[in-house]
Amino acid sequence: MAALEIEGLRKRFGPVHALRGVSFALEPGEIFGYLGPNGAGKTTTLRIAVGLVRADAGAVRLLGEPARRARARERIGYLPGELRLWEELSARALLDSFARYRPSRPPVLRGRLLEALGFAESDLGRRVKFLSHGTRRKLGLVLAMQHDPDLLLLDEPTAGLDPLVQRAFRELVLERARAGRTVLLSSHVLSEVEAICGRVAILRAGELLALESIEGLRTRMLRRASVRFRGPAPEGLARLPGVERAELSGSEATLWVRGDVNPLLGAVARAGVEQFVFPEPQLEDIFLAYYGSGRAPGAGARS
Amino acid sequence: MRNLLRSLAARHAAFVAVSGLLLAAFQYLICAAVASVDVSGAIAKLLDSLPPMLQTMVSATLFGGLSEHGLLAFGWNHPIAQAIGAAVAIVLAARAVAGEAETGAIELLLSQPLSRGRYFAAQAGFALAALALLTLAGLGGTLLGQRVFHVTPFAGVALARLGVDYLLLQCAWFGITLLLSAFGREGGRVASAGFLVALASYIVQVIGQLWERAAFLAPYTLQHYLRPQEILVKGAGVAEPAAVLLAVTLVSALAAWLRFRRRDLP
Question: A258 CB contacts (<8 Å, ≥6 apart)?
């Protein structure tokens, strides 16, 4: 059973198509990155998943249950992107109050989370309105995770957190995934997604452009190799399997390669290489490539 | 649901308590005024200055024929008493949906295993309890004032009927504002709209009382069904006004629920 199943999700807000048939599924124990610029439909997807927004079409199942059932939310944790809390209550009262919504899921992780995120004991007794923005975000993370949910839906979880807390958060997420929990991370911080997510979905204007592992995306990404040969650059490089474009200039060659690089490596090794630069594509390059060119660089969206 | 009720109580306790104290103090002071000043004489002089047609109308409708009980009953018809009740009802209803949507707190709350039905029922239940406490506080002020200032007490049944009438009027304001709240996204605007509706209704009712040709409008206002003079002075029943106010409450709350259960949040 998938931890989260989203099938053919469509949503319009007046003339704006927020989602155009989005489908994907999360397997238990995976950390999934949900990427897209502002207005791509990430928050709408999450809000539909937790029953706040009604989809025009499609279905969402949380841990096997239809998402609109309140019971389905028993085993999930959700952190909204724009976190707003009841400001009149103290942080402790708020944590206690939300814990009581799940009598069968006691807040077993609260102490661990407070410690890991550096939430000061003195802040627990303060009213929310007197807490700093970063402390409120930490409080939001504790609220989402204190009951050790089987599925975590986090919308921009590290926005407003300092780098140390961001690192602590990443460690916490990896720890929960090792314990078999599933995490969906909607984020703009590509380095964060790259560091902890196994798979990503890339969304643009409500449409899923890509859905696969980061490794898979890297493999299918058009990559650039710069080669300096001992002698003149050999002819025929552009005809090698995988090489889509080649620019030769004296002993130097710039090659754009997709997929298997072994034929290229074999050819340049035979010609005698002085320098070979072949950087690994970063998620940011991949992300920008999707947004720069419109469709997927090399392949369409796969569900 | 009990958990949400507890949170609502923690958040709104001070507002409801202060409102209850204000209403109780106001009713207490009305008793003090009736007992210590010749209010009847003063009002009689005031009425003497009015045209004959208005004299009868004002003394009968506003002051219950200038009796001691009639003046005390006016304390429950007074704009201040009505404003305090309406303020509590309107503010609670405006915050229930639109206010929580505006602050964004409803997003985190309804992402918990809490159904919209339970959320709505908790908001309505809390408002009913708060308005009942407010009414009891006001009645307590009247009872205490009558005892302290040796004013002839009202019959228990009459006071209970008045309490039901006043409570249902506030419930009707709550229901109407809740309907606006179910459509709204800003608590402040919904509250302003609720106050405007209440004010317009009050003005129309006063015009209907004072001007015979506009009398047909009065039954279309909610204040028309708050009848302290009839209940406390003439011993009238509360069935008819209660039925109208209850119907308004239920219909508006039902419409609010139908909207709320399907709307996108926040």
Answer: A220, A221, A222, A223, A242, A244, A298
Q: Select the residue of A52, A76, A88 nearest B11 (Cβ to Cβ).
A: A88
Q: Give the tokens for residue A193.
A: 């997604």
Question: DSSP string of chain B?
Answer: -HHHHHHHHHHHHHHHHHHHHHHHHHHHHHHHHHHHS-HHHHHHHHHHTS-HHHHHHHHHHTTGGG-HHHHHHHHHHSHHHHHHHHHHHHHHHHIIIIIHHHHSHHHHHTTSS--HHHHHHHHHHHHHHHHHHHHHHHHHHHHHHHHHTTPPPPPHHHHHHHHHHHHHHHHHHHHHHHHHHHH-S-HHHHHHHHHHHHHHHHHHHHHHHH-GGGGGGGGGSSGGG--HIIIIIS---SHHHHHHHHHHHHHHHHHHHHHHTTS---
Residues 6+ apart with CB under 8 A from A112: none
ipTM (interface predicted TM): 0.78
Distance between A79 CA and the closest CA of chain B, angstroms: 7
Question: How many other CB atoms sit within 10 Å of the CB of residue B38?
Answer: 10
Is residue A192 over pLDDT 90? no
Angle at A199 (CA atoms; ends A46, A113), nearest 5 degrees: 65
Task: State the pLDDT at residue A300.
Answer: 38
Closest residue by Cα to residue A70 from B262, B121, B115, B122: B115
Closest of A173, A167, A165, A177 to residue A117, by C-alpha: A165
Q: Tell me the pLDDT tens digit for each residue of A228-267.
A: 999 999 888 889 998 888 899 999 999 988 888 889 999 9
Q: Is the pLDDT of residue A174 over 70?
A: yes
Nearest residue in B to A74, CA atom: B113
Contacts of B10 in chain A (CB under 8 A): 88-89, 93
Instruction: Determine whether the interchain pair A70/B118 forms a contact, defined as Cβ–Cβ distance below 8 Å.
Output: yes
Residue A114 amino acid letter:
L
Nearest to B262 among A54, A88, A93 (CB): A54
Q: Which of residues 30-89 of A touch B (CB under 8 A)?
A: 47, 50-54, 70-74, 76, 78, 80, 82-86, 88-89
Contact A80 B265 (CB under 8 A): no
Query: Regarding beta strands A4-13 and A57-62, do their DSSP bridges make them parallel or antiparallel, or are they unpaired?
Result: antiparallel
Confidence of residue B64 (pLDDT cuts 50, 70, 90): low
